[in-house]
Each structure stands twice: as C-alpha cells, then as structure tokens.
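B., you asked whether I could sanity-check this one before it goes into the benchmark set. Here's the sequence:
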Amino acid sequence: MDFAKNIKKLREEKNWSKKEMADFLQVSDVTIHYWETGRNEPRMGRVEEIAKKFDIKVSDLIGKSAIDASLPPDAITRITASNYKIPVYGSISAGIPLEAIENLTETSVPDHVILKYGEDKLFGLLVRGDSMNKIVHDGHYAILCKTDRVESGEVAAVIVNGYDATLKRVILLDRGVLLEPASYNPEHTPKMYLDEEAKDIKVIGKLVAVMSPPDFKF
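And here's what the prediction gave me:
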C-alpha cells in the first residue's frame, strides 16, 4: 500500500530506527511496524498530523491510490478548478446530540477525497464533544459523503428524533440500531434504538475524512 511504502521510505531517509520514528510521532514502535507492513493504517486525521510534522504534503504519504477509476476522464480537470472547497454546515455533537445546521462556512479537502467521492457529494460538520475522540477530536471537521445507508460498523452522521444530529459508529441490529461512541472517556456509552425508536434514526452521511480547522496548532 502507498502509505506503508512511503512511511518506511521517510523513516529510512532520516536514517531512523523504528523506535526513533515512534518517539518522534509519539506512537509505539509496534505501531510503526504495523504501518510499514501494511497491517494497519492511521486514519486521515492522523495522516495529516504526520504530514505536518514532517512538513510534507498528505499526498506524499498516501499517493493517489484512492482515486476512483470509475470517474469520467475530465473529472480531474473539473475538480482541480474547484479548489477542493466543500461546505461546512455547522456543528454536530460527538457527545449529546445537538441541532445540526448552523454557522455555514467551508473547508479545504485533500484532492484524493474529492476525486474518490465527488465534490457535490461531500460536506463537512464541525464536531463538538469527546465521545468520538479516538477518530475525530473536538473542534475538528468531520468530512462526510452524502448517503442514507451505511454498512454495520461504519462511522456516520445520523439524525436522531427528527432534527438532532450526532456522529457515531453505527451497528445494525436485527430489530434496530446501536449508536456506539469511540472515546477515551469511559463516561460515553452506546445507545440502542429498537423497533419504533429505530425509525427515528436517519443516516445523512458516512465519515470519509477528518480535517483540522484553519487555526488548529499541532
């Protein structure tokens, strides 16, 4: 995989051991081993942080492997002209659900995300709270692809009770759905919606990337 090859190349160019690389990135040397062998990959938010640490482009780490070959031949030209900006429709809770659409703004998105999912299908939401901080930190942007369904285990923005939105891992059950946090805070627990309650759960987008806000300092 491109990331595995490139992170190893970056380490070797520095003439670092896996332990030295791990110390620099504040991860374990086992994590470096997993990354370099392709056994595991960091999420996009972490990739962006690594790129900032080394003062390189995200594409230098992940390459172009995420480009969807099904796109029409002129897609790259059209998307490049767009400047990779997508709308951010306001706040979404990563703790207690809160009303979604407010404070319209925009954010830049990596070119490979635009190319894979299409600019018109992407939108951002500002995450507030810590119940998903293993994936998205408080104050960061969740980048979502518009969809009304996801596979069990995927992270999505969902509407609860008709108007509140929250970001959670969606576990599909025979009689409903489980919205599961991904947090270092043990106070956050899964919430189950069964039968009639489950009908009030509506998926509005699948998480495909995480972006730092413009004023974020790493």
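One thing to flag: The mean pLDDT is 78. Otherwise nothing jumped out at me.
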